[in-house]
């Protein structure tokens, strides 16, 4: 059971204030009874919610694309430090949101925040080969043989196996910008891969999940809802 005002506001078209207004005016009913108390709790699977007598199909889950800023942790709410879920505005907020996959505190870019555990599992499982694309600014040049090594996959000193990656130099310089695509998300994976090649990541940004690019209109800390078509782009490889 969830608060009706929260659920209505999380559908994407009405703000919390709009919801209060329309409820006060008696335009919302639950199972045929007009409800004016915006704190009332409903079950989105069972209760029939109507606006102006028209049934509203409540979305089961929400999928949010955030451009994570530096200095924020990829975790749910209630941590000591500020988290990506703390940055989600009221209009998209609902209980149970979490980031599907973690970026380091100093990594920026695409974080998908959802309340759909099955979907998160699907896109994160290495079995499904959904590539996450990162742009890494490196401390110094990366040789052709280093690229080949990363592309073949590596075993770290502690026995951790990091599967093959796709690696491409985007900008050649003393501190090159490198695109790296990986389909697993082990702890500090990209940083550890370049470290294994004797290099160091000085800045890291996730630009894409599956075939879905981070929306360039989103400033750091901003987010928007992902459309159903875009969700398909994440899963389609
Ligand atoms: N790999 C890393 O090393 N850090 C991230 O934040 C993501 C992938």
Summarize the structure.
The protein has helices at residues 4-9, 16-24, 117-124, 144-152, 189-196, 228-235, and strands at 2-3, 28-30, 33-34, 41-42, 49-51, 54-55, 63-68, 98-99, 108-114, 132-138, 154-155, 161-162, 166-171, 177-182, 201-209, 212-213, 223-225.
Q: Separation of termini? A: 36 Å
Instruction: List unreliable stretches of 5+ residues.
Output: none
Number of domains: 3
- SSE order, one letter for each helix or strand: EHHEEEEEEEEHEHEEEEHEEEH
Q: What would you say the CATH architecture of the largest domain is?
A: 2-Layer Sandwich
CATH class of the largest domain: Alpha Beta
Spell out which ligands are present.
Answer: uracil
Characterize the biggest β-sheet.
9 strands, mixed
Mean pLDDT, all residues: 93
Q: In the CATH scheme, what's the topology name of the largest domain?
A: Alpha-Beta Plaits
| Beta-strand content | 25-35%
Count of individual beta strands: 17
Number of helices: 6
State the share of residues found in helices, binned by percent.
10-25%
Please characterize this protein's 3D structure:
The chain is of the alpha+beta class and 237 residues long. The chain folds into three domains: 2-56, Structural Genomics Hypothetical 15.5 Kd Protein In mrcA-pckA Intergenic Region, Chain A (Roll), CATH 3.10.290; 63-126 and 216-235, 2-Layer Sandwich (Alpha-Beta Plaits); 131-209, 2-Layer Sandwich (Alpha-Beta Plaits), CATH 3.30.70.1560. It has helices spanning 4-9, 16-24, 117-124, 144-152, 189-196, 228-235; strands at 2-3, 28-30, 33-34, 41-42, 49-51, 54-55, 63-68, 98-99, 108-114, 132-138, 154-155, 161-162, 166-171, 177-182, 201-209, 212-213, 223-225. The strands form four sheets. Strands 7, 8, 9, 10, 13, 14, 15, 16 and 17 form a nine-stranded mixed sheet that branches. Strands 3-2-5-6 form a four-stranded antiparallel sheet, with no helix packed on it. Strand 5 and strand 6 (54-55) form a beta hairpin. The model has no long low-confidence stretch (mean pLDDT 93). Uracil binds at residues 103-104, 107, 188-191, 204.
